[in-house]
Automatic annotation (TrEMBL):
Lineage of origin: Bacteria, Pseudomonadati, Pseudomonadota, Gammaproteobacteria, Lysobacterales
Keywords of the record: Signal
Protein name from the UniProt record: DUF4136 domain-containing protein
Domain of life from the UniProt record: Bacteria
Protein source organism: Lysobacter niastensis
DUF4136 domain sequence ranges: 23-184
InterPro entries with a match to the protein in the record: DUF4136 (IPR025411)
A Pfam family per the record: DUF4136
UniProt keyword annotation of ATP-binding present: no
Signal peptide start and end residues: 1-18
Length: 191
């Protein structure tokens, strides 16, 4: 137990550092989503690991099935997915004090600051570190299949972890967040 405690603490601290994706959705409030029950992928998400793309499509399909939607070749809704990733750079600079001490200041002994006497000095030194990371954005768009009118959009964005296991976890969190309030219901607006 004594050996496993530091490991558990380290895992807890590392998992606390992980960020969950930011999620946003938008929809046409004039659309009655109760009229839709079928969909088809007209563009599946590409631009990432093929295995992660498969997992993403399966996660979206599962969420839509949970809400009573089914895939169909004669669908009412066209679903388009896009993934973009970019390399970002972060530079962190830390200023650390460099404390000095008492010392001789010039021609003679004495107290005080500056030349000619004892003084105390100090300063700062800076340490900079740069790290690169991948930032990803997932966009899911739904269009009415007959009118080609956009009816719904879900977006998730955040840092892409290096580990495939963590990537899968983030993808699932993204899909869960995007579909948390799906299908949307029109909110009565007061004049």
């Amino acid at each position: 137990m004594k050996r496993s405690l530091p490991v558990l603490v380290a895992i807890t601290l590392l998992s606390a550092c992980a960020t969950s994706p930011a999620v946003f959705t938008d929809y046409d409030p004039g659309i009655n989503f109760g009229e839709y029950r079928t969909y088809r992928w007209t563009q599946k998400p590409e631009g990432f690991s093929p295995l992660q793309e498969q997992r993403l499509v399966a996660a979206v399909d599962a969420k839509l099935r949970e809400r009573g939607w089914t895939q169909s070749t004669t669908a009412q809704v066209n679903l388009v997915g896009r993934i973009t990733t970019e390399t970002r750079y972060r530079i962190d600079t830390y200023n650390d004090p460099m404390w000095g001490g008492w010392g001789w200041g010039g021609c003679c002994w004495g107290s005080g600051w500056g030349p000619g006497g004892w003084g105390w000095g100090g300063g700062y030194y800076s340490t900079s570190t740069m790290r690169t990371y991948t930032y990803g954005t997932l966009v899911l768009d739904m269009y009415d299949a007959q009118t080609e009118r956009p009816i719904w959009r879900g977006i998730a964005m955040g840092t892409v972890p290096d580990s495939p296991v963590a990537q899968t976890s983030n993808l699932q969190a993204s899909v869960d967040g995007i579909f948390a309030q799906f299908p949307p219901t029109a909110i009565a607006q007061t004049p």
